[in-house]
Amino acid sequence: MIVWLIAACEIGFWVLLALGLAVRYLLRWRRTSVVLLLCEPVLELVLFVVTAIDLRNGAEPGWEHGLAALYIGYTVAFGHYTIRWLDGHAAHRLGGGPPPPRPPRYGRARARHEAKLWLRAVFGGAVALALLQCAVWYVGDSGDVSSLRSFQWTAVRVVGVHGLIALSYTVWPRRAPAGAGRDDEGGPGKDRTASISRSSG
């Protein structure tokens, strides 16, 4: 049941996001869109409550409970970031706004961008570890918690690998090709400046 609920939460996330952006930029119902987008955290809350009830009812801790903790940690850390990123694209394509800024691709700007993403991963991993530890304490000596411990190490490994990838952009920064504008490094490029000038003109 937990696995199906995780799938339902993932589908529900994208459905609510699509509906929220559609009513905001196609129907111009901003308040309705805010309500729909605020329903996103409810999905994680439902998953958390159902998982806790499942363990309380005597379910043997398994990989599905660990997966639920990792999913909640990921959505807490990256859910708002994903919504904001897609909102910028929807505002441009559906609302007639300027194109959203692209993430930097080269140099120190790209390294800072990757470091910020890694910090989000650290936060998500910390949430998952805390939830799993609470589950371990809750189960106590009455059940086998080896799967929960295993997922704790999985969370640590994921954050560690992400950190090494982010660090590589600092140790071996990507260099912009010859003739690339500042836009390639996260600065205001010519194309964006021209589009802003056209929109203001």
Outline the structure in words.
- By secondary structure, this protein is mostly helical.
- Helix content is 75%, strand content 0%.
- The chain is built from 7 helices and no strands.
- The protein has helices at residues 2-25, 30-38, 40-56, 63-93, 107-139, 146-171, 190-200.
- Helix 4 (63-93) packs across helix 6.
- The longest helix is centred in the middle third of the chain and has 33 residues, at 107-139.
- The chain is flat and about 65 Å long.
What's the alpha carbon Rg, rounded to whole Å?
A: 21 Å
Q: Which runs of at least 5 residues are low in confidence (pLDDT < 50)?
A: 187-201
What is the strand content?
A: under 5%
Question: Which secondary-structure class do the elements indicate?
Answer: mainly alpha
Mean pLDDT: 86
Largest sheet: none
Task: State the end-to-end distance.
Answer: 56 Å
Judging from the principal axes of the Cα atoms, what is the shape?
Answer: flat
Helix coverage percent? over 70%
Order of helices and strands: HHHHHHH
User: Helix tally?
Assistant: 7
Number of strands: 0
Concise overview:
By secondary structure, this protein is an all-alpha fold. 75% of the residues lie in helices and 0% in strands.
Keywords for this entry:
201 residues, mainly alpha, 7 helices, 75% helix, disordered C terminus
Write the layout of secondary structure elements.
Blueprint: H1 2-25, H2 30-38, H3 40-56, H4 63-93, H5 107-139, H6 146-171, H7 190-200
Helix pairs in contact: 1-2, 1-3, 1-4, 3-4, 4-5, 4-6, 5-6
